[in-house]
């Protein structure tokens, strides 16, 4: 791939120096030694070098008749060749203003003549030289200059050949992701008369997302790498021998074929999927393999390699999310990704604006007295382009970035303001805010929130933090420790969406909490289904026995409210009582229910 066009010249030079250093560490190369011998023979000079220039050192990668193997970079005459990016000839170094005082000139080995041709990296940056050296002044004919340039181009080819070390996956020994990108670029760079046939890039995932991480945790990396080799071999023997298989990750592979051969590849993959499902193939681990495929058809001459790669990958992700065995690329996939990217990058501006983010408040009502006993603060985003964006469209994205902490702090700040408004109205009210596991893993998160309460003179007892993602939370004891800090300070802790997802009762012993919120899916049919009534009734009894306050979410009718009241459920929340309200409307609803 080409160097990013946004890099500065100094950054490009830095990359070139790092590449030179990497190549210098690969060890000797006889082919480069042969180049130095050719230089001395064809140009009639006593000494020739192939050099690589780093930030501080000049490495002499190959040499003929020269006493040292490296020099400080600031003494290297090859620096002038690198700076000029072109063939450089100094007929008498003792007459050169820059180099006549160079120790390599006025002391041993007393270089008097220098000619160097730059060696370029695949990105077009000069990384070293092929140079001719003599110990007496001399000139270089045009023919000899051409020879030196040609040999420098040969040195470049040798270095690129050595780069194949970086194009092999060390686990499967298949061509790797970098080789795939390079092959895509090769197709893209062909001259019009050599234009490649329409192509298809196929991505194949062999397990469900995250499964290999679970296997690593359970069996260790060696066993999983062995599994990956087994899968690679299965794919190799299943695909036609002329179709190249690439290893992208331990569980993900790619196939680059002409569109004419696409059907042959899919037929082979379909046959392999059937044999895997029948248990005909066994790998070293007793695991179930499921092939999932995404692909993109493209014209190599008009499609950038990064676009071909990204679109085929988008198709695979869509296939995985929809659990489809095969999925072609569709333009809507990119549109969805662009929207996600715009939402993620636009949140910082939203935090600084005054008209994009706001909170609404959904009252929590006592099922016994009918009074409002709390409100849940819910975030809303009025995006300048997309309008009202549902929280589920951006919170999961933001929670994977560093913006989740300032966003949650913004929500808490607004919630503190609401708490103070309720106090001024004479109806002190608990305000609940949602926090993510990412928040809870922040070292100073709890202390920062407690400082905010203290600065505003608000008692911690009026703030409640609602925790989601129970499975993720329990995987890291730091999150549970943060919850304990909140609880020790008097902040209420609620566990949200109990009854959906990871609802193992065992975690209630491990997470210090005050409130359990029953998910809508658990209580929605208690009025019509006897089995649901029995489950919810016993569950409420058990949870209350352990001292939890129980809140039922998603109550939408009188019959459900009545049943939960009969079960002595503490509180309810849902459209039957109130939809999410503005702060002013929530204050009014509180006054009305409190005076009823």
UniProtKB/TrEMBL annotation:
PROSITE patterns named among the record's database cross-references: EAL
Record SUPFAM superfamilies: EAL domain-like, GAF domain-like, Nucleotide cyclase
CDD domains: EAL
Matching Pfam families: EAL, GAF, GGDEF
Domain annotation EAL: ranges: 340-594
PANTHER family, per the entry: CYCLIC DI-GMP PHOSPHODIESTERASE PA2567 (PTHR33121:SF19), CYCLIC DI-GMP PHOSPHODIESTERASE PDEF (PTHR33121)
Protein's recorded name: EAL domain-containing protein
Phylogenetic placement of the source organism: Bacteria, Pseudomonadati, Pseudomonadota, Gammaproteobacteria, Oceanospirillales
């Amino acid at each position: 791939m080409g160097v990013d066009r946004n890099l500065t010249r100094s950054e490009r030079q830095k990359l070139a120096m790092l590449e030179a250093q990497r190549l210098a560490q690969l060890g000797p190369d006889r082919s480069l030694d042969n180049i130095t011998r050719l230089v001395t023979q064809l140009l009639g000079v006593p000494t020739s070098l192939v050099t690589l220039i780093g930030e501080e050192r000049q490495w002499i990668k190959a040499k003929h008749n020269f006493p040292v193997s490296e020099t400080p970079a600031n003494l290297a005459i090859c620096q002038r060749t690198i700076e000029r990016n072109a063939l450089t000839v100094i007929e008498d170094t003792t007459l050169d203003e820059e180099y006549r005082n160079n120790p390599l000139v006025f002391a041993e080995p007393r270089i008097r003549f220098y000619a160097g041709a730059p060696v370029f990296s695949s990105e077009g940056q000069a990384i070293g030289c092929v140079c001719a050296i003599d110990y007496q002044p001399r000139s270089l004919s045009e023919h000899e200059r051409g020879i030196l340039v040609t040999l420098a181009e040969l040195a470049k080819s040798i270095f690129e050949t050595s780069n194949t070390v970086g194009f092999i996956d060390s686990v499967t020994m298949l061509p790797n992701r970098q080789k795939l990108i390079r092959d895509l670029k090769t197709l893209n760079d062909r001259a019009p008369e050599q234009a490649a046939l329409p192509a298809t890039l196929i991505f194949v995932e062999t397990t469900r997302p995250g499964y290999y991480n679970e296997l690593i945790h359970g069996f260790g990396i060696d066993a999983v790498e062995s599994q990956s080799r087994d899968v690679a071999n299965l794919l190799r023997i299943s695909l036609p021998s002329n179709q190249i298989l690439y290893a992208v990750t331990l569980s993900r592979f790619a196939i680059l074929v002409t569109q004419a051969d696409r059907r042959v590849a899919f037929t082979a993959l379909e046959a392999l999927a059937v044999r895997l499902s029948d248990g005909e193939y066994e790998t070293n681990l007793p695991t179930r393999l499921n092939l999932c495929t995404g692909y993109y058809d493209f014209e190599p001459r008009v499609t950038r390699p990064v676009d071909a790669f990204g679109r085929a990958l988008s198709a695979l992700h869509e296939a995985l999310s929809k659990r489809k065995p095969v999925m072609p690329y569709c333009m809507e996939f990119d549109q969805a990704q662009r929207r996600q990217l715009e939402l993620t990058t636009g949140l910082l501006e939203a935090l600084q604006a005054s008209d994009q983010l706001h909170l609404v408040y959904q009252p929590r009502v006592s099922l016994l007295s009918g009074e409002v006993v709390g409100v849940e603060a819910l975030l809303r985003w009025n995006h300048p382009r997309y309008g009202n964006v549902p929280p589920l469209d951006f919170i999961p994205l933001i929670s994977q970035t560093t913006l989740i902490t300032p966003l949650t702090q913004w929500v808490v700040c607004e919630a503190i303001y609401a708490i103070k408004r309720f106090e001024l109205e004479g109806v002190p009210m608990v305000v609940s805010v949602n926090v993510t596991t990412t928040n809870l893993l922040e070292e100073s998160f709890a202390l920062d929130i407690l400082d905010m309460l203290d600065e505003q003179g608000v008692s911690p007892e009026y703030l409640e933090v609602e925790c989601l993602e129970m499975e993720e939370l329990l995987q890291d004891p730091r999150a549970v420790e943060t919850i304990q800090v909140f609880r020790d300070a008097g902040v209420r802790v609620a566990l949200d969406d109990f009854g959906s997802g990871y609802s193992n009762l065992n975690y209630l012993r491990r997470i210090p909490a005050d409130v359990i919120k029953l998910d809508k899916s658990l209580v929605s049919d208690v009025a019509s289904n006897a089995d649901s009534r029995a489950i919810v009734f016993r569950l409420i009894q058990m949870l209350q026995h352990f001292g939890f306050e129980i809140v039922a979410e998603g109550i939408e009718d009188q019959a459900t409210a009545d049943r939960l009241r009969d079960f002595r459920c503490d509180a309810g929340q849902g459209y039957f009582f109130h939809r999410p309200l503005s702060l002013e409307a929530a204050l009014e609803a509180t006054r009305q229910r409190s005076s009823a």
